[in-house]
Amino acid sequence: MDYITLEKIVKEREKPSRFEHSLGVVEVSEVLARRFRLDVELSRMIGIFHDYNRYMDGDDMLSFCRKRGIAIQKEEEENPMLLHGAVAAWYFPRITNNWNEKAQLAIRHHTLASRDMGVLGAVLYIADYSEKGRRHIDDNDRLVIWGKANLEEMVLDVIRREEEYSYSINREIAKVTLDCKAFLLEGGKFAH
User: Of 44, 50, 81, 103, which has the highest C-beta tally within 10 A?
Assistant: First the structure.
């Protein structure tokens, strides 16, 4: 399946505002993929598909993941809406017939980040956070994030911003996110 076909499938499923967000994620994903010489078409496909299951009921997502043996983080158990990436990662190859494990890992980890998300996951995580429709940051913030030398530095910047926001609302940051941060601070690199 190609990107255009997948975009039509996603458009039929998402509300207009969510679809606009997904298009924004595609736009940033494409720019980052070109910059870092990654698979542009695949980056676009995971960008448009990442929120495919965003409207599924949280309890249904929890049950879906348990039935299929999908690992669930503590924070996802407490807030099952975070599992929309895990569910979308399961559906991605079944809808697109693209069984690329890197694409599945990228979609799976786009909400909380993970040292295992790979370079495609880093692209998606950054794009999801910083696309032009997001109102929690301004254009200057976007330029700061995008201006970093590599994907690892960009992800660290996004995690730092997420930490600041979580602290301001007295919410714990996910262990998997902190693990990703520690991995990157120790010089870890995302797999290609």
Answer: 50
